[in-house]
Amino acid sequence: MTNAHLAEGLFKLAESQPPGEERLALLRAAYAVWDHPRELAGVRRLPDTIPLEALATVTLLHRARGEDALAAVVARLAGPRRAGGAATRSGFLSAAQVGEILAASTLDPRHLRGAAHFHTRASDGVGTLEAMARACQRRGAEWAMVADHTRGLACVNGLDAEGVAIQRRAVAQWNRRHDDTWLVQGLEVEILADGSLDLPRSARHEVAVIAAVHTGLEESRDQTSRLLRALEEPGVWALAHPRGRLFARRGGVRANWEVVFAAAAAAGVLLEINGFPRRQDLDAPLVKVALAAGCDFLLASDAHHPRHLAYDEWALAIAAQAGLPADRIVNFAPRHRLAEWGIGGAG
Ligand SMILES: [Zn+2]
Ligand SMILES: [Zn+2]
Question: What's the 311 CA to ligand 1 centre distance in angstroms?
Answer without folding.
Answer: 14
